[in-house]
């Protein structure tokens, strides 16, 4: 008798080598399906550029100009520093959080109109639909972040610690967006049958964003409120990005603030570990 050739697996159980090509094919088709879904979403944005420009690009620019010029004169940064340099990294992070609503509305709309059910009836990977949505939204967020950075440079903000540190800061911002994106996907699938709930949940972007440190230093908040704001994942990313860009941080000296760089990685990874599997599970059991 001839023993069948096998290869070790990550679980310790041998995998027949004859199965490897089929697994690679399945992976290749899953990636192709995700790219197809992402292309569909991007095609919709090309046909409706007005909504993308207004919601994704103009709104954060308007907030930067309003806080930077209308309210910035009354703002003081603990430890000194220009308020606009303090503000811009916070706005970069805030824009990543505000993507929750965009993702949630798009996912819930597809599910409510039966488009998601059509995808589920097709011979395609279960993860490809949500992965395609994530890919499209990440591309959209990268463009929005680039536009906002250019806006910041135009009004006098500038990174002060070199290209490598700036690239790391952008990476942390996109990691935060990737984490919150899966929250949006999950909530969109859960509440797709209730448009009013989707609208209500979308308003939570504002307390999440404002109950943090993008606009106001935590050291200026009441102690009890400062603790809540400091442990907001948005605050950790904002503080880490300010440090990497070489901008004023205005931190309060708490443990979470002193370890902002670490927590800017831990928080998003924890959110991804929770909401990515939940999103795929919810998609597979949609309507049950």
Automatic annotation (TrEMBL):
Its main location: membrane. Pfam families: ABC2_membrane. The chain crosses the membrane at residues 50-71, 91-113, 134-157, 163-189, 210-231, 260-280. It is found in: Cell membrane; Membrane. PROSITE patterns: ABC_TM2. InterPro entries: ABC2_TM, ABC2_TM_bact-type, ABC_2_transport, Nod_factor_ABC_transporter. Keywords: Antibiotic resistance, Cell membrane, Membrane, Transmembrane, Transmembrane helix, Transport. It comes from the Bacteria. It is a multi-pass membrane protein. Residues 51-286 form the ABC transmembrane type-2 domain. Belongs to the ABC-2 integral membrane protein family. PANTHER family: NODULATION PROTEIN J. This is Transport permease protein. It comes from Nocardia acididurans. The lineage of its organism: Bacteria, Bacillati, Actinomycetota, Actinomycetes, Mycobacteriales.
């Amino acid at each position: 008798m001839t023993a069948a050739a096998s290869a070790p697996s990550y679980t310790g159980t041998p995998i027949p080598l004859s199965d490897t090509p089929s697994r690679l094919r399945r992976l290749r088709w899953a990636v192709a399906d995700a790219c197809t879904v992402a292309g569909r979403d991007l095609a919709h944005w090309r046909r409706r550029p007005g909504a993308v420009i207004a919601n994704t690009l103009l709104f954060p620019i308007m907030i930067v100009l309003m806080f930077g010029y209308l309210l910035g004169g009354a703002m003081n940064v603990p430890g000194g520093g220009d308020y606009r340099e303090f503000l811009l990294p916070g706005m970069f992070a805030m824009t990543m959080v505000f993507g929750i609503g965009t993702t949630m509305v798009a996912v819930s709309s597809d599910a409510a109109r039966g488009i998601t059910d059509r995808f589920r009836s097709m011979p395609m990977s279960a993860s490809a639909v949500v992965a395609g949505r994530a890919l499209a939204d990440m591309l959209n967020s990268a463009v929005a972040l680039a536009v906002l950075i250019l806006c910041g440079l135009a009004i006098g903000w500038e990174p002060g610690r070199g290209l490598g540190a700036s690239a790391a800061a952008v990476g942390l911002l996109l990691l935060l967006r990737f984490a919150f994106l899966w929250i949006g996907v999950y909530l969109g699938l859960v509440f797709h049958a209730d448009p009013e709930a989707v609208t209500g949940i979308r308003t939570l972007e504002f307390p999440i964003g404002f109950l943090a440190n993008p606009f106001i230093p935590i050291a200026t908040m009441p102690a009890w409120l400062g603790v809540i704001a400091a442990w907001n994942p948005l605050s950790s990313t904002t503080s880490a990005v300010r440090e990497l860009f070489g901008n004023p941080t205005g931190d309060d000296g708490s443990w979470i603030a002193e370890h902002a760089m670490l927590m800017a990685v831990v928080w998003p990874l924890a959110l991804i570990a929770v909401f990515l599997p939940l999103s795929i599970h919810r998609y597979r059991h949609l309507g049950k």
